[in-house]
Design goal:
Layout (H helix, E strand, L loop, with lengths): L1 H65 L7 H32 L2 H4 L2 H4 L2 H15 L10
Membrane topology: Single-pass membrane protein
Protein name: Single-pass membrane and coiled-coil domain-containing protein 2
Subcellular location: Membrane
């Protein structure tokens, strides 16, 4: 009689475990279904966003064409390129003016900058190279 009660208890526990296993498998299937639905919803949202962005771009391009302007992005790029070109021209003019001042007027203000940057031997080589170009030779043109 005790053995029968134990066997009945084991059978009940076995059925409960089988019911739990079945419930867990069903839960797993339900979770997979929910995850698939969430993925589908995310893909739909991403698709709608992409369509919205492409539609916005098309509307902006049509607005630019209607206003007789270049397409989107070109005007900003042109302004940036123009600004960069002006800065380069300004820097080039500044360098050219400095070089002209040193070459034509007076190299003395810049002589103090060169020796700390170069060695003494390099300074003497530089003077030997540039000396004839930085001095005004007028002996041949004087009448006396």
């Amino acid at each position: 009689m005790a053995i029968t009660e134990v066997w009945d208890g084991v059978a009940e526990v076995h059925m409960a475990l089988n019911n739990q296993a079945t419930g867990l498998l069903n839960l797993k299937k339900d979770i997979r279904g929910v995850l698939d639905q969430m993925e589908d919803i995310q893909l739909e949202i991403l698709g709608e966003r992409a369509q919205c962005r492409s539609q916005t771009r098309k509307e902006q391009q049509m607005a630019c064409i209607a206003k007789a302007r270049p397409p989107l992005g070109c005007s900003e790029g042109f302004r940036g390129q123009l600004w960069l070109l002006l800065l380069r021209l300004l820097l080039g003019a500044l360098l050219a003016c400095t070089a002209a001042y040193v070459y034509v007027v007076d190299p003395a203000p810049f002589e103090g900058l060169v020796p700390p940057l170069l060695s003494h031997a390099a300074v003497w080589k530089l003077r030997a190279l540039l000396g004839p170009f930085l001095r005004l030779e007028v002996d041949d043109f004087l009448p006396f």
